[in-house]
């Protein structure tokens, strides 16, 4: 394993570097801790445990781990970075990010969540947002960052933290009532991630703190859906934002809804769209 000098990203957990393993580019995630710390070690092992369960085209793959002299996680390299940075870059040149491409990304994101929520995998991600969606060389979207995810078990209950996520993407029952994250709260966050694909904005970035607090306390935690959003995608986003978790669609329902629209409109080209 050879680490390069190219820093791919950084966060509260640690830094991600471009590396090479047997002449193949990979991403090496190095925790900030390099000495034994029970809490940090548990978080790192939790992410490895979750990633090791996953084998999907819509989830970033785990390539390997090391817990000997140095700690690190080796993951699939996603050469086009995260979705949030991509949308920020394309905000002033939207014509270079065609709707077909972004619709394809939306389909891939909900397929990834559907896979995580499936009976055999049964994972609550707890932090779905654009910066945790990575893009490969062909701008295919894959879910990443499982540091606060939890594996649900019918016999053991929830393995992992009860709360988590990033405030502006959080479902109101988590943000306001401190309830644990669930598959339904993941779906609420999916709604804002799909909204980002259409708006090229971060949720509530135009609100002052006072306006935001008023909205989540007395109103509905929603954004205005941009003009030009395909009706089926608009409907999916609105359903994801339902205040009552029971009324939100499941991930598989979202997949079926978006795929059905492709069949109706004969939009098979969505999945062979040219990329920038």
TrEMBL record:
Residues 2-269 form the Protein kinase domain. One of its GO terms (biological process) is necroptotic signaling pathway. Pfam families: PK_Tyr_Ser-Thr. PROSITE patterns: PROTEIN_KINASE_ATP, PROTEIN_KINASE_DOM, PROTEIN_KINASE_ST. ATP binds at residue 29. Gene3D superfamilies: Transferase(Phosphotransferase) domain 1 (1.10.510.10). InterPro entries: Kinase-like_dom_sf, Prot_kinase_dom, Protein_kinase_ATP_BS, Ser-Thr/Tyr_kinase_cat_dom, Ser/Thr_kinase_AS, Ser/Thr_Kinases-Pseudokinases. The keyword Cell division does not apply. One of its GO terms (molecular function) is ATP binding. Keywords: ATP-binding, Kinase, Nucleotide-binding, Serine/threonine-protein kinase, Transferase. The keyword Kinase applies. SMART domains: S_TKc. PANTHER family: MIXED LINEAGE KINASE DOMAIN-LIKE PROTEIN, SERINE/THREONINE-PROTEIN KINASE TNNI3K-RELATED. Belongs to the protein kinase superfamily. This is Protein kinase domain-containing protein.
């Amino acid at each position: 394993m050879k680490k390069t000098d190219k820093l791919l990203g950084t966060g509260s957990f640690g830094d991600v570097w471009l590396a090479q393993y047997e002449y193949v580019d990979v991403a090496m995630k190095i925790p900030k801790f390099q000495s034994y710390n029970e809490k940090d070690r548990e978080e790192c092992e939790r992410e490895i445990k979750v990633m090791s369960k996953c084998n999907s085209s819509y989830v970033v793959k785990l390539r390997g781990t090391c817990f000997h002299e140095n700690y690190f996680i080796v993951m699939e390299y996603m050469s086009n970075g995260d979705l949030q940075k991509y949308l920020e870059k394309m905000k002033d040149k939207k014509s270079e990010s065609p709707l077909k491409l972004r619709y394809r990304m939306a389909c891939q994101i909900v397929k990834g969540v559907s896979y995580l929520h499936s009976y055999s995998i049964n994972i609550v991600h707890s932090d779905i947002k654009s910066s945790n969606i990575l893009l490969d060389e062909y701008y295919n979207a894959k879910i990443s960052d499982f540091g606060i995810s939890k594996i649900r078990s019918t016999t053991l209950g929830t393995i992992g933290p009860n709360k988590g996520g990033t405030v502006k993407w959080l479902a109101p029952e988590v943000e306001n009532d401190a309830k644990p994250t669930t598959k339904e709260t993941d779906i609420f966050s999916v709604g804002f991630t799909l909204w980002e694909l259409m708006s090229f904005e971060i949720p509530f970035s135009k609100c002052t703190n006072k306006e935001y607090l008023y909205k989540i306390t007395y109103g509905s935690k929603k954004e205005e859906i941009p003009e030009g959003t395909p009706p089926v995608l608009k409907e999916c986003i609105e359903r994801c934002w339902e205040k009552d978790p029971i009324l939100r669609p499941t991930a598989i329902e979202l997949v079926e809804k978006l795929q059905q629209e492709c069949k109706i409109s004969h939009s098979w080209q969505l999945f062979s769209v040219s990329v920038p």
